[in-house]
């Protein structure tokens, strides 16, 4: 740290920053933004509609004490109850066993094991990955959690933290499987959703303080950074251009799109969008320069890798995530961010600049083809809008073949949109439960951020919400769960938000 403080360059940058900050504080634009912010805040506070949206709601308020919630909590905690009972039976013997104490101590920190699994999951090459690994790992982690809960009376799974709507969505997932047009085609997707749910549940239940959730995030980011480094390597040495990943005429002369350890550049970009915003929080929360340097390094590598993916939806999602985080951290800096972004456009590499110009270009087949898929999905939904076809993209692909093909003679393999996909699979009420879960999570996260007192938790929560907003935007143009590792990361992020909400409420009550 002393080296940085004595550095002429660093002192010059700091002095320039202080000058710019003072100029901004005294500028007319800043005063105007403050007046606009106060006016908007007063308008929102006085709005009946906004007050209706902002209220806690009757259902979430009564949910923790409801019979349904308590029953679900009891069922999920059966392994923990059994382990606690067995521990009480053999307490005298077990307490004297060094092996048991070591094992129980390791399993008593399940958040570290969760973080290690996520790091490994993000580093395994696509050819070596099997989605069953996630289900096996999730069940094993729950088993270790239960074992570690034996000597710890307060350690238990906490599904009530999710609120009612995510649980309702999971109920419709089960219904979509039971009512599927083909159970065999839907069976493996039950495992995907179960693994995703358990990973989210572990993220919530295993953390008791900020340091716990920080370790999980750091480990996950370590795995992502390794994947991003390999993506950067691919970008430098080059990868073959895949014709079905980009229009060869509109994108003429552009290099191949990097994919790192994953199957597709868009899959890689979605993972980067979901997790990279955590580097913002870790940088702000780091007390030493080493932590800040590590966060900056991870951010730089992940940002460069995202550029190499040439994923337009990924770039838009990452831009939104950055804007959302800045809005949480200090919304008055948004004009500066916009101005900085505009100034950086001429500095972009030519390939990225040209790729940006193709956003929304209907001459680009990857854009126009999506609308052909949406049209085909609309025809199918005329028959299945209420009940859905059943769980999973396999049964949906099979059902598409019962309808006329698209203009090129092919049939869609999914709807290219998360929200439409959930509607097609689970029906109208399943889609409404899904949207309710997302909106409730966002609202709960924002309220926890505004009411929280621990700045570290608030920064991490802001980063999680930012990444979540980014993937929600991408989900309009992509079916982000088609690649299961993205689905597991999606719900891990969902769990991190819930964990931060839990910590915010705990620290506020202290």
Can you describe what's shown?
With 510 residues, this protein is mainly α. It has helices spanning 2-5, 8-25, 28-45, 48-54, 58-62, 67-76, 78-89, 91-95, 98-107, 110-121, 132-149, 164-178, 183-205, 210-237, 265-275, 278-285, 289-309, 312-330, 334-344, 350-357, 365-384, 393-400, 418-451, 455-474, 484-509. The two termini are 34 Å apart. The mean pLDDT is 88.
Could you name the ranges where pLDDT drops below 50 across 5 or more consecutive residues? none
H and E order: HHHHHHHHHHHHHHHHHHHHHHHHH
Helix content: over 70%
Number of H/I helices: 25
Radius of gyration: 24 Å
Largest sheet: none
Number of strand segments:
0
What's the mean pLDDT score?
88
% residues in beta strands: under 5%
The dominant shape is globular
**Strand pairing plus helix content: what structural class?**
mainly alpha
In whole angstroms, the N-to-C terminal distance is: 34 Å
Q: Summary?
A:
Helix content is 73%, strand content 0%. The chain is mostly helical and 510 residues long.
Keywords:
single chain, 510 residues, mainly alpha, 0% strand
Question: Any chance you could write out the topology, listing elements then pairs?
Answer:
Elements: H1 2-5, H2 8-25, H3 28-45, H4 48-54, H5 58-62, H6 67-76, H7 78-89, H8 91-95, H9 98-107, H10 110-121, H11 132-149, H12 164-178, H13 183-205, H14 210-237, H15 265-275, H16 278-285, H17 289-309, H18 312-330, H19 334-344, H20 350-357, H21 365-384, H22 393-400, H23 418-451, H24 455-474, H25 484-509
Helix pairs in contact: 7-11, 9-11, 10-11, 10-14, 11-13, 12-13, 12-23, 13-25, 14-17, 15-17, 15-18, 15-24, 15-25, 16-17, 16-24, 18-24, 23-24, 23-25, 24-25
């Amino acid at each position: 740290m002393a080296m940085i403080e004595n550095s002429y360059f660093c002192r010059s940058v700091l002095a320039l920053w202080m000058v710019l900050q003072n100029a901004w504080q005294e500028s007319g634009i800043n005063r105007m933004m403050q007046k606009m912010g106060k006016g908007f805040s007063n308008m929102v506070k006085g709005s009946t509609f906004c007050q209706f949206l902002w209220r806690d709601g009757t259902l979430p308020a009564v949910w923790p004490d409801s019979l349904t919630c308590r029953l679900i909590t009891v069922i999920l905690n059966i392994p923990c109850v059994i382990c606690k009972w067995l521990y009480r039976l053999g307490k005298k013997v077990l307490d004297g066993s060094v092996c048991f104490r070591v094992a129980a101590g390791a399993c008593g920190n399940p958040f570290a094991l969760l973080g290690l699994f996520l790091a490994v999951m993000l580093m395994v090459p696509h050819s070596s990955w099997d989605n069953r690994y996630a289900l096996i790992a999730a069940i094993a982690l729950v088993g270790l959690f239960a074992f570690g809960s034996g000597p710890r009376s307060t350690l238990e799974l906490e599904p009530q933290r999710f609120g009612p709507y995510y649980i309702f969505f999971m109920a419709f997932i089960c219904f979509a499987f039971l009512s599927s047009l083909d159970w065999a085609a839907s069976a493996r997707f039950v495992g995907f959703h179960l693994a995703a749910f358990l990973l989210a549940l572990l993220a919530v239940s295993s953390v008791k303080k900020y340091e716990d959730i920080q370790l999980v995030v750091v480990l996950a980011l370590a795995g992502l950074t390794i994947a991003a480094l390999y993506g950067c390597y691919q970008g430098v040495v080059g990868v073959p251009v895949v014709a079905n990943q980009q229009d060869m005429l509109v994108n003429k002369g552009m290099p191949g799109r990097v994919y790192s350890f994953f199957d597709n550049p868009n899959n890689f970009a979605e993972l980067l969008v979901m997790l990279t915003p955590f580097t913002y929080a870790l940088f702000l929360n780091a007390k030493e320069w080493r932590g800040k340097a590590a966060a900056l390094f991870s951010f730089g590598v992940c940002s460069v890798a995202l550029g190499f993916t040439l994923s337009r939806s990924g770039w838009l999602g990452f831009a939104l995530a950055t804007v959302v985080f800045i809005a949480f951290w200090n919304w008055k800096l948004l004009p500066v961010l916009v101005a900085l972004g505009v100034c950086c456009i001429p500095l972009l590499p030519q390939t990225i600049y040209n790729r940006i110009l193709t956003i929304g270009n209907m001459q680009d087949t990857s854009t126009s083809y999506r609308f052909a898929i949406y049209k085909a999905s609309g025809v199918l939904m005329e028959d299945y809008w209420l009940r859905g076809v059943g769980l999973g993209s396999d049964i949906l692909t099979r059902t598409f073949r019962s309808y006329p093909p698209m203009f090129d003679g092919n049939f869609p393999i999914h709807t290219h949109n998360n929200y439409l996909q959930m509607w097609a699979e689970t029906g109208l009420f399943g889609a409404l439960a899904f949207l309710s879960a997302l909106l409730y999570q966002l609202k709960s996260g924002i309220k926890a951020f505004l009411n929280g007192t621990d700045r570290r938790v608030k920064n991490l929560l802001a980063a999680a919400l930012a990444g979540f907003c980014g993937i929600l935007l991408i989900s309009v143009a992509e079916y982000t769960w088609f690649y299961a590792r993205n689905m597991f990361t999606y719900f891990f992020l969902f769990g991190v938000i819930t964990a931060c909400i839990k910590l915010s409420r705990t620290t506020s009550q202290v």
